[in-house]
Each structure stands twice: as structure tokens, then as C-alpha cells.
């Protein structure tokens, strides 16, 4: 079956909020406004199987809350929305274009205040695809809203009006065509329309032989701590043979992405260590500097099992505030704890838990909660796939290499490092792009190798090397002796790349290579699942900026609010 893109000009008008009144006359001025969000597919036309899809927002005018009177608006918001439409006779719209309304509330004794902090009372949403069949007419819908303020819950209704008009262009692009067999049609589109509610965490037994990771002590590991200061302390290596028991809640399949823990693992130290890491498939070996925290987000100290989104927001803010330095070990521990604490606060928010019962909050939710003064600039952000040219349904999508070329372009301004929050395979980490080095900061140790229970920073600089055609040790004895290789043996290995470019290859060969190979085999057999294809190959780079400077140039319409300030917060 073939799908094509269809553009609709959509107008949405919030009319009335019923069931929310001012019943107390205490001299306070109470105001309500609506934040409306349009959330649709990514810009490349493919339906996003993550929550960080294309999103824009509008704000209504403020309205005073009056006694025993509904709140009415005359605002109207519009947008051109792209839908996928089947080529079958029913010509039905597929995918999802979600429109949501957040009811924002503010109270003040001083009516002359020009700015007020708003708390979110409740949320209502609907899918435009369910109404788009009414092209050319205006329809009204009454959306139920559960409002919560000062511990009191009340049911209300938001009346909205929606109209559609088809956009016809002479050079309309067909976009990316997804060829789906009849056998997977129903399941695939059901997943597209119920993405948020159908996120599943599955555990599978580890299969096949795992990677070995070897460590060794180098002169460089003694030279500097995380801030570049001399330490003069030598490293002490101890054998740690006990694996950390997995908690079983990781959303990815560990046999694909995990690494066997090192046979010789360093005790936590406050400086960089030069390490060698062999990829799970044995085809690549990375030599780079690694810096460890004392623990990761899943530890008892942090208690942030699913806190990666909040933790990366905290880390990104730290890097934006102090662009010329990396956090010391004690500070990195503090950032992980802080981010986990903010995640716990979000978990205590009833409204957000209704939207995210699995506690895996999306990046937009974390940023709009103003945990940190950080924002994402969409025009400098990217969404792409690993090797899309190898798959028929992804051939028009942007590739990871194209994104990386833009990120690493030396013509770009390097006055300040660039900070990206990267999302891939349902996890977030931070990428710092500096003129002298690239840094990968991950709050989940399991990403580095299976059994790792400490957050880490990988530094890719002039000392980094990535070798190819590495013969993977076949026994534990050989793995333990891997660091004893002679210089002649090392020189026999083919060097794939050096320096900062190793960061690109690390992401490709250590994170995505096995999934890519498995999906290529499925493509050849014609048994590939489109859900699995997009889930395992899509990667997003969110460009971060400080909202303190960004907000100074924004209009009042795009003002932000805090969920955790004042007495009216939920």
C-alpha cells in the first residue's frame, strides 16, 4: 500500500471553558489563559515514534475568572498540517496531528503587575485526523478537562471549534512513500495512532557473545583532572568480576546495545582515564579518554530510574552556564542527583502523570516545566536516521552523516561550544561540540557497557583513535591479557579515524551498527517491521540555548510559566 502527503489548512478556535468559576471574593485577581500546542510528524515527513516530534504553540489572551460565569475567548489559531493519506478508495488520513490545550492559571493581589507566573491546572487534547473528514465545514467539540488546584479536583469542559481546508499546490511533493504489506498494515498504523499509550518495555535474554572492554593506565590519565588541573596521582586498577544486577527496566534490548563489563575496572577517581573499548561485533576498537561519576541515575543515591530527560536538561544548563569547563566528579554527581530530584517532582505532578503514566517524560515537557533556564532552538536542531539509503521507506530522509557534517562544519562560529541533547532508542544524552574536542555525556552507565553503574563522559580529541578489523578475544584469559599487546601487534590494526571524528564513528559503530545490520537482513528477507525500523534508526539532535537570553527577544505570546512556583501549583 502507498501513502502520500496531504496538506490541510486548519483553524482552531477555543470558545468557552465551562465549570471553572471564582467562588471566593478575597480581593485577588484570578486569570486564566490557554496554551495550545500543535504536535505533528517530524519535518522529514515520517511519523515520529518518539515524543520529540514537531511542535509549535500559541497562547490565548488572558481572561478574568468571574463568579458563576464561563470563560470565553475569541482567539483563533491556524496552521498548515501535513497528513499521510492512503491511496485506497477510502482515502483515509493516517498518522496523528495532536492538538492539546493547557489551562493556565494565575492569581495576584496586585492587578497592575505586567507579568505573572502561571500554573497548569489541566489539559485537554484531541487528534485532528479524527475530524479531518469534515473538510469545508466547521465542527465543534466539547473536550473534558480535569482541573486540579489547591488539592481540589473538579471536572470542566472546553468547547472548541475546528475547520479544515485542503491546500493545493502545483508542485506538491509526494514526500516519502512507505510501502507496507497487508500483513503488517493494521498493526503498524495502530501503533502510529496510539504511540504514547503503547510504549512497551520488554526484557529479553542476552543472546550471543558479548563485548569485552579492556582498560589500561596511561601517562595522560595522570596529567589532568576534569578541569585540566595537574593531579600527579596514579590510577589504581582493581579486578571487579561481579556484574551489577540489571533492574530490567531499560527500554532497549541489551543484547544489541550492551557491552560486557571490563575485566579490570577502575575504582572511581576524579580524573580522566585512557580506555580501550572493543565493539560488541568485534569490528572496531576505540581508544579515548573516559571520565566517570560515582554512580548513575539508577543508583539508590539518585533514585532516577527514568530520569534521563531531566538529567540531560540539568547537564545542558551547566554546560551552557560554564562553557569553558567540564564538571568535576563531585559536580557531575550533584547534577545527576539534581536531575533525578527534578524528575521525582514531575512524577508527583498529577496532571503530568496522567499524560506520562510510564514516567518517561518527553524533552518538551521537562523544558516547559522550567527545571532549568534552557530552551531548544528548532531551526538549529536535526532529525535523521542511520543509513536511510539502505531502506526503501527511508530513502528521502536525512541521514546521520548529513547531520554530523552540519554539526561539525568548521565554518560555523566556535566562539561558544554547541550543546545538543541527543535522543536515540528512547534515551537521551548530551553532546558538547567544541573546537578542540567533542564530549558525550551520558547519565546511564549501561550505554557504555553492560553492567556499568556509573555515568560517564567520553572525550574525543587529538589523542583518540578508532581501529578497524580487530579480532575479538575469544576467552576470558585473552580478554584479561588484551592490554599486554605489543606495539607491533597494535600497528597491524587498521586505523579508521583519529581525533574528533572518532565521536561520529563511536555513535555509528558502537551504538547503531548491530541494529543496522539486523535490519538490513530483515529488509532483504522482506520481513522488516516499519515500527522497528524507525524506532531503532531514528536519532534527534536538539540544539540547546539559554532561555534567559532567548526570552529577551521573544514576544509576550511566547512567555513561559513555572509548574513549581507559588501556592497555586499542582
Number of domains: 2
- Percent helix: 10-25%
For the record, the CATH architecture of the largest domain stands as Alpha-Beta Complex
Percentage of residues in DSSP E strands: 25-35%
Low-pLDDT segments: 42-53, 170-269, 549-570
CATH topology of the largest domain: Cathepsin B, Chain A
Mean pLDDT: 72
Shape: globular
Using the coordinates above, name the CATH class of the largest domain. Alpha Beta
Distance linking N and C termini: 46 Å
Largest sheet: 12 strands, antiparallel
Q: Let me know the number of strands.
A: 25
Computed CA radius of gyration, to the nearest angstrom: 26 Å
Structural class: alpha+beta
How many helix segments? Answer: 12
Protein name: C2 NT-type domain-containing protein
InterPro entries: NT-C2
Blueprint of the fold:
Layout: E1 3-18, E2 29-39, E3 55-59, E4 63-64, E5 71-72, E6 77-86, E7 93-94, E8 98-108, E9 119-127, E10 138-149, E11 152-166, H1 182-193, E12 213-215, E13 237-239, H2 254-257, E14 264-266, E15 273-278, E16 284-292, H3 308-321, H4 329-347, H5 350-355, H6 363-368, E17 374-376, E18 382-385, H7 400-407, E19 418-424, E20 427-433, E21 438-442, E22 456-460, E23 465-468, H8 476-480, H9 487-491, E24 494-498, H10 501-525, H11 530-537, E25 538-546, H12 547-550
Antiparallel strand pairs: 1-5, 1-6, 1-11, 2-3, 2-4, 2-8, 6-7, 8-9, 10-11, 12-15, 13-14, 15-16, 16-22, 16-23, 17-25, 18-25, 19-20, 19-25, 20-21, 21-22, 23-24
